[in-house]
Amino acid sequence: MYKLLIGFVCFSAATGIAHAFLLGDAENGEQLHRKNCQGCHAQRFGDDGSEIYTRPNHSVKTIEGLMGQVEFCNKQISLGLKDDDINDLVLYLNDNFYKFE
Ligand code: HEC
Question: How far is the CA of 54 from the centre of ligand 1 (A)?
Fold first, then answer.
């Protein structure tokens, strides 16, 4: 019974994340990205900066890694984005560049 309960809690948590993720607003993510993120990446990588995500040796390899990286950048540049905004940014970056399942 105890094990069953743990299994259930983990399962709910996992589907909760996937669900929130799918319900994100990629358009809000795109706007946040243009405003807060793109300029600096473009300065370093040229053009629109998207090469930072698509270069062969890019560092983000998993969806969890992407979430972590966006949260890290958010703290690093003291943007103070809310969880919803971080979620939208992750969705936008994944839809357009990383395409993790
Ligand atoms: C002040 C400059 C700057 C700003 C602003 C900035 N970044 Fe970055 N970002 C970097 C640098 C530098 C790297 C690492 C480049 C490297 O690994 O060589 C990076 C790496 C990344 C990566 C990993 C790319 C990979 O290798 O797969 C992601 C994702 C990312 N940034 C997202 C964001 C997001 C989202 C924002 C806005 C909330 C943001 N960054 C704002 C400078 C910046």
Answer: 12
How far is it, in rounded angstroms, from Cα 31 to Cα 22?
18
**Distances in Å between the alpha carbon of 5 and those of 10, 12, 14?**
9, 11, 14
Distance (Å) from CA 13 to ligand 1 centroid: 28
CA-nearest residue for atom 41, ligand 1, is 37
Cα(1) to centroid of ligand 1, in Å?
45
Report how many domains make up the chain. 1
pTM above 0.90, yes or no: no
pLDDT, mean of residues 56-67: 94
Q: What CATH number is given to the structural domain containing 9? A: 1.10.760
pLDDT in tens, 26-35: 999 999 999 9
Give residue 89's domain range. Answer: 2-98
